[in-house]
Amino acid sequence: MLLVLCVDLDDDLGRKTGFSTPVIGxxxxxxxxxxxATADPEDSxxxxxxxxxxVYDDLTERDESVEVAVVTGNDEGDVxxxxxxxxxxxxxxxxxxxxxxxxxxxxxxxAQDESVIPIIRSRVPIDGVRRVVVRxxxxxxxxxxxxxxxxxxxxxRGTILIPLGILLLIYPLALIGSALERPGFVLGAxxxxxxxxxxxxxxxxxxxxxxxVERGRRSLYAxxxxxxxxxxxxxxxxxxxxxxxxxxxxxxxxxxTEVGALASVAAFGYGSIQWIAAAAVTTSLGxxxxxxxADSLEWRYLNAPFYVLSIAIVLQxxxxxxxxxxxxxxxxxxxxxxxxxxxxxxxxxxxAESRLSDSGDSGxxxxxxxx
Length: 371
Known about the structure:
Elements: E1 2-8, H1 12-17, E2 23-24, H2 26-39, H3 44-61, E3 66-72, H4 78-95, E4 103-108, H5 111-114, H6 117-121, E5 126-131, H7 140-152, H8 154-174, H9 182-202, H10 205-222, H11 225-254, H12 261-293, H13 303-322, H14 328-362
Parallel strand pairs: 1-3, 1-4, 4-5
Antiparallel strand pairs: 2-3
Helix pairs in contact: 2-3, 8-9, 11-12, 12-13, 13-14
Protein name: DUF373 family protein
Organism: Natrarchaeobius halalkaliphilus
Transmembrane segments: 158-177, 183-200, 221-242, 304-323, 330-352
């Protein structure tokens, strides 16, 4: 039996139509092809599926034993997508009720989908690979269409747009330090803007920003305390930066000689670390509160505020030591106290979680978050 395998590596079929894959059989495959063509007529995977149906019908007319199926991966990446395709091929092979040896004809729309061929070959012998190429006019409209597809296709964003954007940034970087004549400045600025745009499209920064705004809106409507915690933490961080700069300026005014880089970092840290630590504790407490409300709190989450305090104690002591405001005895005590605070908090919550989990397993179901 010949198995006609239509490969959709990034799962356009499932994402755009909601079809459960793999799709096996002539009628279900045709239904899936029509659904995908209706949802997105420009998707090249439509042609792949119809090509598989064409091959199936052609071989059926010759009285050959043949079956057609559509297998998909996902849009997470090559490794995960290839593994998912392999799992779906196993499902298709298990569903075939035939005593004949099964071979496969793989149909794809390009080299990206053909990367899964070794995965398929490890499960079934491959008689051939057919790549579907759509004929189109080579004119200005098709060029615009191609560029638009490249900008929108998640498969080509990372592999084409990001390197191209980096190349476009090389020219404006080369102008730094040279005389910025008007033509060179205009070309450099244009190249930089285009490079940043391509990199942002390649990294999907616009989509990520939209998703972050949507998450923030949902969190606000859901009454999540992390929203308030993040706002307060942002204010505390700003206050910390101002306090650190003020401390640095005070050190420069009280020092007769020039302040070195190490002393500058120590002064800024000494003035800002308590504010930044307060911001970190605020965000961790907000997250812990939301986890508790959502009934998903785990004991180890409670370590976060204590770890922040431990790190703050150590950094504060080190900064004060480099500013000659404390001696080695104070530094040693602070380092010991910070270390012990982190260790004690870790052991305390680990023991508490272990004992409450054991009591829950041996008796009634016990929720450690409500203990």
